[in-house]
Design goal:
mainly alpha, about 75% helix, globular
Length: about 300
């Protein structure tokens, strides 16, 4: 307003046209400045809102993917999401909001969609690395104890409660996947007891954790060694049965791995075929399990096709 008043006073004593030109120019610069300042504030507000809400993005995208009925769509789309998570972690290197989803997705993608063994090993290594960074940032003492004896790990776990379930479970799952990808390396196999301790701690707080997936991991781990070499397939069976119960039978991968890891290990064809036929006749759509169930059906079909030859 003061700008306009000054211009009007000047117009009484100077050339009127020049004065009006000057006045319009001043007004023009003034309104242009206001316009761009307004846009700047809007942009800053949007960025602020995005910064506050971006933390929800990994969780929401993961949930969307797990409810997807088309595995091929996920296979082709997930790499872009992985790269996005890598970029977010580069920006926020110690933020478990991004480290944990990245560890989960890299591990899941490696186990299902990896093109070859080399790619699978690279991806599970990155999954374990992200999960370990999250764990060490949150629970430094436990992180250090994992390089020590079993007793040291138990002492640190005793200091934790259910608030740490997600981060401990994520690391245990990533570690287990890494061991499985390096199953020919006896140094990797030797780390199994420590992984089991972490899973057992999770199951102590919640036996049904993650729709029974924690039980599935333990079932697979307990069936890695045959009875003749000191393995405990009876424990594997108990974990698989608990996994099926935990999801009311909706987690179809529990039955597939029960058949593949336990029934094949003990040559129980009747159990093997019954479990797989139940998977093929079951409904795949279930909250948080649809994608896994679609993959389970595909795997069940392949195992059944090979059943007669395997058990002959």
């Amino acid at each position: 307003m003061s700008i306009v008043i000054v211009a009007r006073k000047d117009c009484r004593t100077r050339d009127w046209l020049k004065c009006r030109y000057k006045q319009c120019t001043i007004r023009s610069h003034f309104f242009v400045s206001v316009f761009f300042m307004t846009r700047l504030f809007i942009i800053l507000a949007i960025i602020s809102i995005q910064a506050c809400s971006i933390g929800n993005l990994p969780h929401n995208l993961s949930r969307s993917m797990m409810n997807q009925e088309d595995p091929e769509l996920v296979r082709t789309a997930a790499p872009a999401y992985l790269l996005m998570l890598d970029a977010l972690i580069e920006t926020y290197p110690d933020d478990e909001t991004f480290l944990i989803p990245a560890a989960k997705l890299y591990g899941a993608y490696a186990g299902v969609f990896a093109n070859d063994e080399a790619q699978m090993k690279r991806m599970v290594h990155r999954a374990k690395s992200y999960a370990q960074r999250a764990l060490c940032e949150s629970e430094e003492d436990l992180c250090s104890a994992l390089d020590q004896q079993i007793e040291d790990i138990n002492l640190e776990l005793a200091e934790l409660d259910e608030d740490e379930l997600v981060i401990v479970y994520t690391y245990a799952a990533s570690w287990a996947s890494w061991i499985r990808a390096n199953s020919t390396d006896w140094d990797a196999i030797a780390q199994l007891p420590k992984v089991k301790i972490l899973f057992n701690w999770v199951l102590k707080y919640d036996p049904d954790y993650d729709n029974g997936t924690a039980q599935i991991y333990m079932g697979v781990l307990e069936s890695q060694i045959p009875p003749s070499l000191g393995g405990r397939p009876d424990l594997a069976k108990a974990h698989f049965e608990s996994a099926i119960k935990a999801s009311d039978g909706k987690n179809l991968m529990a039955k597939v791995l029960y058949a593949q890891q336990y029934a094949r290990l003990l040559f129980e064809q009747e159990l093997h075929d019954r479990l797989l036929n139940e998977v093929l006749s079951a409904e795949a759509k279930a909250e948080g399990l649809t994608l896994v169930n679609q993959l389970a059906k595909k795997q069940a079909k392949a195992l059944l096709a090979d059943s007669a030859e395997y058990f002959e």
